[in-house]
C-alpha cells in the first residue's frame, strides 16, 4: 500500500485549508487504496477570520497545527516530524491558508516566500523525486520550490496566472475538471475551488489529481 503525506494549513477556507478540498483529498486517497498521514507547520496563522461574517477577528490568535488537527481528527504531525522514506508522495489542498500560512502570496503576490518549515518539508519530496499534487491556490508555491519553468495551474484567473509566471513558473490554463501534469518533475495541479461552483465539481479534479499522483509514485 502506497502512503502519502497531506499538508494542511489550518481549518477553514478564509484562513486555513479549504475543508471540502481537504476531505475530498483524504477520501480519494482512501478510495484509491492508499493510506495517508496529515501534516501541518507548527506556526501561528496569519490571522483568524470569522467565517460567518467574513471579518478578521481582532486580537485572536490560532496555531496552524492545532487548527489542522480538527480536519485530521487529531491524527496529525508537525512538518518537522517527516520521515521522507515512509512516504511515496504529497498532496496539498488549497484554501487561503495555503496563501497566508504556508506562504505569504495573499499579502505580497509574486514577491512571496514559502514559510521556512513548509519549504523544508516540501523540498524533501522534491529532492527525493517524489510526486506532489497542488490543489486550488496552493500551486502558487510551485515556482518557489522547483527549478526553471515548472508547469502548474490555478485555473484561468489572469492576475494569479501572471504572478505565477513572474515567479518563474509556466502557467497552463485549465478548467475545473482538468489537471495539469509536469511529468518530468512528477508535479500535478488542479483548480478545484478556484473555479468549482460546488463540491461535486471540485471532487472531479481532485480525484483525477490524486489518481495521477499515485500513478507517478
From TrEMBL:
Database matches in InterPro entries: Class_I_gatase-like (IPR029062), ElbB (IPR026041)
Reaction catalysis annotation: glyoxal + H2O = glycolate + H(+)
Keyword terms of this UniProt record: Lyase
CDD domains found in the cross-reference section: GATase1_ES1
A GO molecular-function descriptor: lyase activity
The keyword Lyase belongs to this UniProt entry's keyword annotation: yes
Ranges in coiled-coil conformation: none
Keyword Lyase tagged: yes
Family under the similarity heading: Belongs to the peptidase C56 family.
Main function: Displays glyoxalase activity, catalyzing the conversion of glyoxal to glycolate.
Protein name: Glyoxalase
Organism lineage: Bacteria, Pseudomonadati, Pseudomonadota, Gammaproteobacteria, Alteromonadales
Amino acid at each position: 500500500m502506497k502512503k502519502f503525506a497531506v499538508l494542511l494549513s489550518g481549518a477553514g477556507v478564509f484562513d486555513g485549508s479549504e475543508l471540502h478540498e481537504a476531505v475530498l483529498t483524504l477520501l480519494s486517497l482512501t478510495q484509491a487504496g492508499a493510506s495517508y498521514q496529515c501534516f501541518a507547520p507548527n506556526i501561528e496563522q496569519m490571522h483568524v477570520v470569522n467565517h460567518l461574517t467574513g471579518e478578521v477577528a481582532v486580537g485572536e490568535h490560532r496555531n496552524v497545527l492545532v487548527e489542522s488537527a480538527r480536519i485530521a481528527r487529531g491524527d496529525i504531525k508537525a512538518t518537522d516530524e517527516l520521515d521522507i522514506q515512509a512516504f511515496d508522495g504529497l498532496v496539498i489542498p488549497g484554501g487561503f491558508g495555503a496563501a497566508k500560512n504556508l506562504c505569504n502570496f495573499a499579502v505580497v503576490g509574486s514577491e512571496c516566500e514559502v514559510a521556512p518549515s513548509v519549504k523544508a518539508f516540501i523540498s524533501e519530496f522534491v529532492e527525493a523525486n517524489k510526486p506532489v499534487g497542488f490543489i486550488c491556490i496552493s500551486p502558487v508555491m510551485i515556482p518557489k520550490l522547483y527549478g526553471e519553468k515548472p508547469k502548474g495551474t490555478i485555473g484561468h484567473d489572469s492576475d494569479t496566472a501572471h504572478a505565477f509566471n513572474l515567479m518563474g513558473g509556466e502557467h497552463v490554463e485549465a478548467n475545473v475538471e482538468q489537471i495539469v501534469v509536469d511529468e518530468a518533475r512528477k508535479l500535478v495541479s488542479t483548480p478545484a475551488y478556484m473555479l468549482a461552483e460546488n463540491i461535486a465539481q471540485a471532487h472531479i479534479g481532485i480525484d483525477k489529481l490524486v489518481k495521477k499522483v499515485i500513478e507517478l509514485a
